[in-house]
Design goal:
With about 290 residues, the chain is α/β, with parallel strands linked by helices. The chain has one domain: TIM Barrel. The chain contains 9 helices and 8 strands. Strands 1, 2, 3, 4, 5, 6, 7 and 8 form an 8-stranded parallel β-sheet that branches. The radius of gyration is 18 Å and the shape is globular. Its cofactor is Mg(2+). One of its GO terms (molecular function) is metal ion binding. It holds the Pfam family YdjC. This is ChbG/HpnK family deacetylase.
């Protein structure tokens, strides 16, 4: 599917959108879902948790999925991976807005996680985002830009694109989407655009992880697809089975079931959307 229905006898191209599976390397069931959905043509990208003790092993599966799958860094400040107590997102947000995040310590966190990505894959990330969107918090985002400039230079064409959580279309009406945008999404998008960093054009995929069936998740998907524009990004969190001990472990299996289904293919067709495959950089600009 790559065209919309005829309008006055002419066909218009479908909207090309990006679907990114977050949390790669969190658990083997997540990694398996990413691999299967990529082979099915249902994903554009995955963002990788290089802080995970499973990262090195999980990274070995990724080269075979290139170039159809873009690979990014899922910057982590809150997930302990069962090895240490996790830092709650509320506490991290409070520290960020109190000015307690940033400086040399945050630059070091960016450096270590980017080093782990590059060492395992032999490449720079195609893009950068954050677990629970921590990349957009005050102090964290400033350290990100500093590290990007030092590593990759000032040319926008050489920079990884960065996730903007500015809601696409009218999706800001969802309370959770609005909160994420208020907690750094809109501000980060404006600042990174001024600084010449490439960004996606609108964001979707935000919900309360409260749908027990694929059909329920599909209703959310239909609402997101209706609002996306070319170059918009949706996040998802699939796993091939429930992930024990994970806060959204059951919901991951629900998402996977829907994303691999004929119902998802039909939703894309009805919304005149196409899931981007291959290099994504041309979809994103600094404007």
């Amino acid at each position: 599917m790559n065209t919309m229905p005829a309008i006055n006898g002419e066909k218009s191209p479908a909207r090309t959108v990006v679907l990114c599976a977050d949390d790669y390397a969190l658990h083997p069931l997540v990694d398996e879902a990413v691999e299967q959905l990529t082979l099915q043509g249902r994903l554009s990208a995955t963002s990788c948790m290089t802080t995970s003790p499973h990262w090195r092993q999980a990274a070995r599966r990724l080269p075979a999925l290139r170039p159809r799958l873009s690979l990014g860094l899922h910057f982590n400040l809150t997930e302990g991976h069962g090895l240490q107590p996790a830092a709650g997102i509320g506490a991290v947000i409070a520290r960020a807005y109190a000015g307690a995040l940033g400086g040399a310590a945050m630059r070091d966190a960016w450096r270590r996680q980017l080093d782990a990505f590059e060492d395992a894959l032999g490449m720079a990330p195609d893009f950068i985002d954050g677990h629970q969107h921590v990349h957009q918090l005050p102090g964290v985002r400033a350290a990100l830009v500093q590290e990007l400039r030092q590593r990759y230079g000032d040319n926008a064409d050489d920079l990884p694109w960065v996730r903007s959580t500015t809601p696409a279309g009218q999706l800001w009406r969802d309370p959770k989407a609005a909160i994420i945008a208020l907690l750094g999404g809109w501000t980060t998008t404006r600042r990174l655009r001024r600084q010449g960093v490439p960004l996606n054009h609108g964001f979707g995929g935000v919900y309360a992880f409260d749908q027990p069936t694929p059909e329920g998740y599909g209703r959310h998907m239909a609402q997101w697809l209706a609002q996306l524009q070319p170059g918009s990004l949706m996040m998802c969190h699939p796993a091939t089975a429930p992930v024990q001990g994970d806060a959204i472990g059951a919901q991951r299996a629900v998402e996977y079931a829907y994303l691999r289904s004929d119902a998802f293919a039909q939703a894309l067709e009805q919304a005149h959307c196409h899931i981007a495959q291959g290099p994504l950089t041309p979809l994103f600009t600094t404007n």
